[in-house]
Amino acid sequence: QVQLVESGGGLVQAGDSLRLSCAASGHTFSSYVMGWFRQAPGKEREFVSAISWGGGYTFYADSVKGRFTISRDNAKNTVYLQMNSLKPEDTAVYYCAADAGVIQSSLRRPSAYRAWGQGTEVTVSS
What are phi and psi for residue 44, nearest 5 degrees? Predict the structure, then answer.
């Protein structure tokens, strides 16, 4: 089972940028679909973005489209989430997720992913 460790969270002001990283263990990283989810206090975990095995296909929630960019470096076993023009409503704990069996129709569902990181907190002040 792949193990995931997120980093890069922090406290920023509205309009600032952050880049989250998710480092994965294991030699089969390139076979995993990778996703980013977030969970704000009192709310359910929600889909943010996902990327296919080779990085050729990316998917975004409408709320972050045009502001966030997901990418991966399979040589470094790492997936990134570049977050620009941050808003207070982006405040949440951000989780990295991985699964080799995710299909496109289900990649926005947390239940489609079996491996999760511990999360990294992002706070955006107004």
Answer: -75, 155
- Mean pLDDT split into 10-residue runs, the chain, 126 residues: 95 98 89 96 97 94 98 96 98 96 93 96 97
Length of the chain: 126
The encoded tokens of residue 97 equal: 């997720």
Q: Is the dihedral of CA 43, 11, 120, 101 positive or negative?
A: positive
Supply 110's token pair: 């947390």
Return the DSSP state at 28: -
Kindly provide the b/e burial profile for residues 24-38, where b requires at least 16 CB atoms within 10 angstroms of the residue's own CB. beeeebeebbbbbbb
Structure confidence at residue 25 (pLDDT): 93
DSSP-assigned letter for residue 64: T
**Distance from chain centroid for Cα 33:** 11
Spatial CA neighbour of 36 closest among 119, 123, 114: 119
